[in-house]
Amino acid sequence: MLKRLAPLVLMTTCLTACGSRTLPAAPVETVTATVQPSPRTDDVETDTPNQEDTASDDVAAKKKLPDVVGMNLQEGQDTLQAAGFYVLNDKDATGQNRLQVFDRNWVVTKQSPAAGRRVSTDTLITLYAKKIGE
Fold it and tell me: For 62-131, which CATH class?
C-alpha cells in the first residue's frame, strides 16, 4: 500500500513546490472615525433638585380605588391600570390555588382593599376571582 501512496505524495509535493496560482487579495477598505471629546464635568452646570421635587417623587398619589367586583379579571385589571394602579395580584377565590391563565374566563368576586377607598397608587391590590359559571 505504501508503494501506491508514494507517487501520489511525490506528485503533491512537486505541485506545491512549483507554486500554485493564487488570486490577488481583495482591497481593504479603510474607515476613519473622528472621536469628539466629552465635556468636562466641572464645565457643565447641573440643576440640584429642591426638597419639594424629591418629596413629590417619593410619595405616590392617592386615588379613589375603582370597584371591579363582577367584572371579568382582565377587564378589572385594565380598569385598575387605567386609574393608575399597577401593583396588582390575583388569587383563586375558591382556595384551589389555580392560576388564572386566561383572565377573561374568570370573574372578580372580591378585591382588597375595598373599592371606594383613597389609597396610594403603589398599594398592592389583590383581586380574588373564580372561573365564570362556578
Answer: alpha beta
